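During the no-cost extension, the postdoctoral fellow (Dr. R.K.) reprocessed legacy sequence entries with the updated structure-token encoder. One reprocessed record is reproduced below for audit purposes.
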Amino acid sequence: MECNVGLVEQKARVLAGLALIGVGAYYNSKPLAAVGLIPILTGMLRWCPINAAVGYSVCHSKPAETVNDGE
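Re-encoded structure tokens follow.
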């Protein structure tokens, strides 16, 4: 699995998942709390199957290292 969720999106997903779990617990809604696990998992793994399906990626690859010959 190649990363397709950026760091900012990762934090937003985890916070949204925690919020959904909190709202589900407050209103005693187990399905809503269960749905909150999805953004938490995709945020922690930094991979989203929907992003992969549409070809969307926010991850930035590291720039190639250059060799300095002492010049």
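DSSP finds four helices and no strands in the chain. The CA atoms of residues 4 and 52 lie 7 Å apart. The remaining legacy entries will be reprocessed before the final report is submitted.
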